[in-house]
Specification:
Elements (H helix, E strand, L loop, with lengths): L24 E8 L9 H6 L5 H12 L6 E9 L3 H15 L3 E5 L2 E3 H7 L4 E4 L4 E3 L11 H6 L3 E7 L7 H4 L5 H26 L3 H8 L6 H7 L4 E2 L10 E3 L19 E8 L1 E3 L4 E3 L8 E5 H13 L3 E10 L1 E3 H12 L5 E10 L1 H4 L6 E4 L4 E3 L3 E7 L1 H6 L23 H26 L3 H7 L4 E3 H6 L5 E2 L2 H12 L7 E3 L7 H12 L13 E3 L8
Parallel strand pairs: 1-2, 1-9, 2-3, 3-5, 4-6, 5-8, 10-14, 10-22, 11-13, 14-16, 16-17, 16-18, 17-21
Antiparallel strand pairs: 7-19, 12-13, 15-23, 18-20
Helix pairs in contact: 2-3, 3-4, 7-8, 10-11, 14-15
Family: Belongs to the peptidase S49 family.
InterPro entries: ClpP/crotonase-like_dom_sf, Peptidase_S49, S49_SppA_67K_type_N, S49_SppA_C
Protein name: Peptidase
């Protein structure tokens, strides 16, 4: 604990000390959400101003190869990554720490920053660091009563009791089944956190788990418990031979081209709510409406391009999605299931419901311990605006068959219509469980026990046979290379559909982003979807 951490850091505009021709230390700043991949679409890429885990891995690869470099100070700013992304950052820093001395500087000691920083060999916080190690929690606002007071009710038909995708619109409180599954998921995250910190700090998982309830209020208390290795301000760490990462780019050896002779691995992203048609991004931050949407046409076209590419020997499907359209999920599943090349699915923060459906027939499924997965279930519903229309003098008039207008929000379902919808979603649920049983080599009865709409953490999913391995994208790429018999340094390429011209696609996405619908799934009402209003804090 009493080690001397006087590190050689100085502002980049100052000269290096005599006899030193190159900086011996580099400062690497980490801040922002750190998505696993850079956005694949032109519009999303333009709107994104954050670095990705993919880019960080490339930076670290160059730093590892710098023979003149003694160490790296990783300075955490407003680090807002999900636990799953933080775990991927942890692995990258651990790889760097195997080659160089790595010190993490943490002005804020939070659950998520400690996941990422635990890959470093030394953890330092200032005396005044903000400490928030109170465990993980989620909060969801239920809108049922709010909507009802405004004349809007919500039809919510689901299979089965844990399928909570639409409950925050139809109910005014969280039901017992949803509370149970969320608590179990959070328990899994805290167990994974204890394992990560225990491994980093050389203590038992039980000791690390005790840190969550220890009520630390200062960096000094965290130091005394063994959570961190030093209390110091940044200026106490700096010396005369350091530079920011950006200032040493010209000194870093370009990354050696990968061994492409034997073949390569294709990486296909599936990010956001799954819909039919083309992928798009809606920047409106509203439930159901906002964020990236993974179109089945776009994802299928990318998978087909990877299949047809002669140099591609394996495919990695990176999934960060709570699902969406049952139809779109099945169309993507079909491309994975019929691919003659080995397909590895890597799960990000979410791979639930339709996001799990598409993965069932992959050769290998890799997930973070912090991934939210499962939610094998089906839901359907619609808003009912009858009272809203009455209050505001709106009078929808009908002509023709009622069945043709059964999904209209102007009235509730009739009993006959409700039976029709329930029959349809039960058929989709049976298909979903059959896909899981066949792809994961489980009985239908066992899949139903694991299904019923219930979510699982990555760690719990591994124990139950829903995934094959814990890891991240680098793990998935390694498995894909092994399955294809490729060398460990075979290249990976990011796949987009053929003829994906940036300017026409950009214009199309910009036009789509201005169009907002109260139901983003078009005419489809059957969803394998997990409402992504679960943000771990």
């Amino acid at each position: 604990m009493g080690m001397n951490l006087k590190l050689p850091f100085l502002n980049s505009e100052d000269s290096l000390p005599g006899g030193v021709t190159r900086p011996t230390w580099v400062v690497l700043d980490l801040s922002g959400p750190y998505p696993e991949r850079q956005p694949g679409s032109p519009l999303a890429a333009l709107l994104s101003r954050t670095e990705s885990v993919e880019a960080l891995a490339a930076h670290v690869q160059k730093l590892r190869a710098a023979s003149w470099l003694h160490g790296v100070l990783v300075r955490f700013g407003e680090f807002t990554a999900s636990p799953a992304s933080a775990h991927a950052v942890r692995g990258i820093l651990a790889d760097l720490a195997a080659e160089k001395r790595v010190v993490a500087y943490l002005p804020q000691l939070t659950m998520t920053t400690l996941i990422a920083a635990s890959g470093a060999g030394e953890l330092v916080a200032p005396e005044s660091a903000e400490v928030n190690l109170g465990g993980f929690g989620v909060e969801s606002t239920f809108l049922g009563e709010f909507l009802k007071k405004r004349g809007i009710e919500f039809e919510n038909l689901r299979v089965r009791e844990y399928k909570a995708a639409l409950t925050r619109f139809s109910q005014d409180h969280m039901d017992d089944h949803n509370r149970e599954q969320l608590q179990a998921y959070l328990d899994g995250l805290e167990a994974a956190w204890a394992n990560d910190l225990a491994a980093a700090r050389g203590v038992s998982p039980g000791v690390a788990a005790g840190w969550i309830s220890a009520d630390f209020t200062s960096a000094q208390a965290a130091l005394e418990a063994g959570v961190i290795t030093k209390v110091a301000y940044e200026d106490e760490l700096i010396g005369p031979a350091s530079r920011p990462f950006e200032a040493v780019l010209d000194l870093l050896t370009p990354h050696r081209p990968a061994n492409a002779k034997a073949g390569r691995v294709a990486v296909v992203p599936l990010i956001g709510t799954i819909i039919t048609g083309k992928s798009r991004t809606n920047p409106v931050p509203l439930p159901l409406l906002g964020g990236p949407m993974a179109g089945s046409d776009t994802v299928v076209a990318a998978l087909r391009r990877a299949k047809e590419d002669k140099a591609t020997k394996a495919v990695v499907l990176y999934v960060n999605s709570g699902g969406g359209s049952a139809l779109a999920s099945d169309l993507i599943w079909r491309e994975v299931a019929t691919c003659e090349k080995p397909v590895v699915v890597v799960m990000g923060e979410y791979a639930a419901s339709g996001g799990y459906y598409v993965a069932t027939h992959a050769r290998t499924i890799v997930a973070s311990p912090y991934t939210l997965t499962g939610s094998i279930g089906v839901v359907s519903g619609k808003p009912v605006m009858t009272e809203f229309n009455r209050r505001h003098g709106l009078n929808p008039e009908r002509v023709g068959r009622d069945r043709a207008l059964m999904y209209s929000p102007s009235r509730p379902y009739t009993d006959e219509e409700r039976d029709h919808v329930e029959k349809g979603i039960l058929e989709v649920y049976d298909r979903f469980t059959a896909r899981v049983a066949e792809g994961r080599n489980l009985s239908r009865e066992r899949v139903n026990e694991l299904g019923r709409g219930r979510i699982w953490s990555g760690h719990d999913a591994l124990e139950r046979g829903l995934i094959d391995e814990l890891g991240d994208l680098s793990t998935g790429l390694a498995r894909a290379r092994e399955l294809a018999g490729l060398p460990h340094d075979a290249p990976a390429w990011n796949v987009t559909p053929k003829n994906h011209g940036p300017l026409p696609q950009f214009a199309q996405e910009a036009a789509q982003a201005t169009s907002v619908s109260v139901w983003p799934f078009g005419n489809e009402r059957v969803l394998t979807w997990f409402d992504q209003d679960v943000r771990v804090r």
